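Researcher: For the annotation table, I need structure tokens for Amino acid ABC transporter permease. Please keep the output clean. Sequence:
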Amino acid sequence: MNVLLDYLPEFRDGFLGTLAITASSALLALVLGVVIAGFRVSPVPPLRAFGTAWVTVLRNTPLTLLFLVAFFVVPQVLFRGASPYVLATLALGFYTSSFVCEAVRSGINTVPLGQAEAARSIGMTFSQTLREIVLPQATRTVLAPLSSIFIALTKNSAIAGAFGYGELFNVSKLLNDKGYAIAWIFLWTALAYLVITFAISGAFRVLERRMGVVR
């Protein structure tokens, strides 16, 4: 208990840092994932090829390697002076977007093909059909897998601590270096992660109840 009370500001900052990186990465992954899922079901072959390549490369690349690229390559090529927060968000968001894409694409495939054909028959474009007809119905079926994906993202955010971003794992590492018992440090860190993951799970359960349909 002493380690928590003595370093409460550090634990608080680490907790808020984890919340911030989780929220920003989840938003980036959600936006990219939906867009890439649209590419994967697009009637335009180059877009389908791009979407397939995006998912194949990112899902089969170790997340640690993506962090190495984000922190040591991206600042040299694109964003000079970018903060660890921005770089960690890019690595986590891009990686998670490939999983979001596949979850959304699976949801799209559950919508009867006849609805898309009916929309096209009345003159709606592909993007209009996807946005107004298909995605609203697919959302109901993708909530459960998205919950698991974002919980995994929360736990994956610990890698950012190894690259100097101030989140829970980084705080745990600093306190361990000061000689505090690692078991107590990990206990409080694990409880903090549980609070975040339970909150995500609860939020998605509420969404599922509100958006659920009688089958």
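Researcher: And a one-line annotation?
Model: The chain is about 85% helix and 0% strand.
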